[in-house]
């Protein structure tokens, strides 16, 4: 299947519609980190099949943050296959849509003159970016988190209040979500970076969260947008830090 890369044994990065998700396998069980847009569902299910797993094998769905491009199929999978949808406690009300910390249509319109913004916005509409992706069953993850892949949550508030990265210490992998990315259709640059400022709920917090990522022991970063970055977390953070 195109767009799926085995990063380490049991760790797969999958590219969807301008966004990524990660499949962690351990024996027959699976942890899914994020779920793409609603329109990515067929690709999401195909990616599970490509690594020899079924939705019925899911032990947990972990969410980095509750934006539509990461939460798209979480409710469907959770309800259909009785899978817990877990995230940082501060992100639970966001996923339930008791509140919203996501770029508004007005902000997108105001920035439509910027390179790449309008084509990206049109793709968002096509893949269901404005659909209801609320997850009523969203729950906070237990501590310690004991799911396939053994990810360790790293709270990185800024992009949203409850944004969380996931560190895989044994594999030397860091799933960064949108706390640090490597490319985006609205960005002119490639390599480790922050999303453009308009996407962050708290810009100062997003910048500060880089410090929490830079001290982790990882030599591969799996971002929410863009390709995997091979290099230390500290090096990636220094490249991403705004001047």
UniProtKB/TrEMBL annotation:
InterPro entries: Metallo-B-lactamas, NDM-1-like, RibonucZ/Hydroxyglut_hydro. It comes from the Bacteria. SMART domains: Lactamase_B (SM00849). Residues 18-225 form the Metallo-beta-lactamase domain. This is MBL fold metallo-hydrolase. It comes from Actinomadura keratinilytica. The lineage of its organism: Bacteria, Bacillati, Actinomycetota, Actinomycetes, Streptosporangiales.
């Amino acid at each position: 299947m195109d767009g799926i890369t085995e990063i380490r044994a049991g760790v797969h990065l999958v590219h969807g519609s301008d966004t990524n998700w990660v499949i962690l396998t351990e024996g027959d069980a699976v942890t899914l980190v994020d779920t793409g847009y609603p329109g990515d569902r067929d690709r999401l299910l195909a990616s599970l099949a490509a690594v020899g797993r079924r939705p019925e094998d899911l032990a947990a769905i972990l969410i980095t943050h509750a934006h539509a491009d990461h939460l798209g199929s979480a409710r469907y999978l959770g309800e259909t296959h009785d899978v817990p949808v877990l995230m940082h406690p501060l992100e639970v009300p966001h996923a339930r849509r008791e509140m919203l910390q996501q770029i508004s249509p007005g902000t997108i319109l105001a920035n439509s003159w910027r390179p790449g913004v309008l084509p990206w916005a049109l793709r968002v509409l096509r893949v269901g970016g404005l659909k209801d992706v609320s997850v009523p069953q969203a729950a906070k993850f237990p501590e310690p988190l004991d799911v396939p892949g053994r990810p360790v949550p790293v709270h990185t508030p800024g992009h949203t209040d409850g944004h969380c990265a996931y560190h895989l210490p044994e594999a030397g992998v860091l799933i960064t979500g949108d706390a640090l990315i490597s490319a985006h259709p609205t960005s002119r640059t490639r390599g480790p970076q922050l999303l453009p400022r308009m996407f962050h709920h708290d810009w100062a917090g997003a910048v500060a969260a880089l410090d929490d990522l830079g001290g982790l022991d990882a030599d591969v970063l799996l971002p929410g947008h863009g390709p995997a970055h091979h290099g230390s977390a500290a090096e990636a953070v220094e490249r991403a830090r705004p001047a």
